[in-house]
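Shipment paperwork, digital attachment
Item: protein structure file
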Amino acid sequence: MSAKTSPSNRIDIGLALFVVFLLVFATNRLDKRHFNTVQDSLTTVYNDRVVAQDYVYKMSNVMSKKHLKILDASLSYSQSNLNEEFIDLMDKFSTTKFTSKESLTFEDLKKKFNALMQLESKSTALIDKDRQVQFIDAIKTDLNNLSLIQVSESKYKVGLAQRSLDTKDLMSTLEIVFLVIIGFTVQFALFYRVKKSMTRENN
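Attachment content:
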């Protein structure tokens, strides 16, 4: 019985437990990192993509109304009210997180919109209305590009979250395998040492 509680056996058990503790600690840290990655991806998809896509849709709708107003001046809404609504939507959109391409596209959109407002304030001549339509079409193109960016970035973030979950599953499997190997190794070491000690005592 003394062999089972000898100092060398206690050291073996202590080392095994220490390794298990390190493994569990490291796995916990990795799990937390993967959880943060998934959480960040899902938060970004909603706050910076789903919400942004809604703003883009509403801005596009405003531009469609502006185009209709040019074609039919009898419509109840005014260009100035539509401009105020568009500016408000741009301000809200600017609070979302941009990619470099998205930032450039948005800056281009703002320049075109400012040019459109200046043109609207100068004259109501037919030739100016044609130019207004051209600006509206150009702004819609920018809005369409912004919409495509939202879809692309959403797919990227969802893919990133899925890869993180896949990695977590793999790490969990490796953790179980490693724990089993450690368990067998400790058992083998302990029984081998006990058997060796008992053999020496019998001799």
